[in-house]
């Protein structure tokens, strides 16, 4: 009897330890927005834009200000998105990247404004635009204001594209909710990282809704490539070379210094 109790406890602690190890692996795998941009820029150098934009808690959501202050101190950034200008093998580009450490990379008013400004500057300066998405979707702490960013960012990107601009959308793990359902799916070229979760609602929600088993790998980048939703899958290690080739192929439309 006593041995059975110890065995159950041993199994329970083993499961908890496995969960901790998986969580630690996930934390190690997270790439900050600044790091992601530096990985594709020449010499890891870039100029950050609009770094001081900060939310004012538009719906007075409880404890939102305190949580943001904590994350600003911890992540050394004002919100979940970094805008920058840099060079990729000598070719100028405007680059944006989400950071999942900041409220799971959720899109609120500041993120939407940064993306809109980035698209506007790309349009004005005739530069290609590259955005790395990694997000849980719209930010619930900003209510309807966060949902409005879906239309705002999509309109800004569409205007840029209609004027002949090149928009490369890079989908990383995870790209979900209002981000996947708006500007992230509007790329002239859509790249995904291997095994990235790309969806609006997650597989667990869909499974519970329809009451059926989902296909293996459903909503992962490989599944989406097979079904024509994305153009290519590129590992992080090959991202800079791939983007450089794409910029060279389209360089006739743009002014590079």
From TrEMBL:
InterPro entries: AcCoA_carboxyl_beta (IPR034733), Acetyl_CoA_COase_Trfase_b_su (IPR000438), ClpP/crotonase-like_dom_sf (IPR029045), COA_CT_N (IPR011762). This is Acetyl-coenzyme A carboxylase carboxyl transferase subunit beta. Pathway: Lipid metabolism; malonyl-CoA biosynthesis; malonyl-CoA from acetyl-CoA: step 1/1. Keywords: ATP-binding, Cytoplasm, Fatty acid biosynthesis, Fatty acid metabolism, Lipid biosynthesis, Lipid metabolism, Nucleotide-binding, Transferase. Belongs to the AccD/PCCB family. Signal peptide: none annotated. The gene is accD. Acetyl-CoA carboxylase is a heterohexamer composed of biotin carboxyl carrier protein (AccB), biotin carboxylase (AccC) and two subunits each of ACCase subunit alpha (AccA) and ACCase subunit beta (AccD). Component of the acetyl coenzyme A carboxylase (ACC) complex. Biotin carboxylase (BC) catalyzes the carboxylation of biotin on its carrier protein (BCCP) and then the CO(2) group is transferred by the transcarboxylase to acetyl-CoA to form malonyl-CoA. Gene3D superfamilies: 2-enoyl-CoA Hydratase, Chain A, domain 1.
């Amino acid at each position: 009897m006593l041995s059975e109790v110890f065995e159950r406890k041993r199994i329970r602690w083993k499961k908890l330890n496995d969960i901790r190890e998986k969580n630690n692996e996930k934390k190690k795998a997270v790439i900050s927005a600044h790091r992601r941009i530096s990985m594709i820029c020449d010499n890891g150098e870039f100029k950050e834009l609009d770094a001081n934009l900060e939310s004012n808690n538009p719906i007075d959501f409880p404890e939102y200000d305190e949580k943001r202050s904590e994350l600003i101190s911890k992540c050394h950034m004002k919100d979940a998105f970094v805008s920058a200008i840099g060079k990729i093998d000598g070719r100028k580009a405007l680059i944006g990247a989400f950071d999942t450490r900041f409220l799971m990379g959720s899109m609120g008013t500041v993120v939407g404004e940064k993306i809109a400004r980035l698209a506007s500057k790309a349009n004005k300066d005739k530069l290609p635009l590259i955005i790395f998405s990694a997000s849980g979707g719209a930010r619930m702490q900003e209510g309807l204001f966060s949902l409005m960013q879906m239309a705002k960012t999509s309109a800004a990107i569409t205007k840029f594209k209609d004027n002949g601009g090149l928009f490369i959308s890079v989908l990383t793990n995870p790209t979900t909710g209002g981000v996947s359902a708006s500007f992230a799916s509007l790329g002239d070229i859509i790249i995904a990282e291997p095994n990235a979760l790309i969806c609006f609602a997650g597989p667990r929600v869909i499974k519970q809704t329809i009451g059926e088993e989902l296909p293996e790998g459903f909503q992962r980048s490989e599944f989406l490539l097979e079904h024509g939703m994305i153009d290519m899958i590129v590992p992080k290690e090959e991202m800079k070379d791939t983007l450089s080739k794409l910029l060279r192929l389209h360089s006739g439309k743009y002014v590079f210094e």
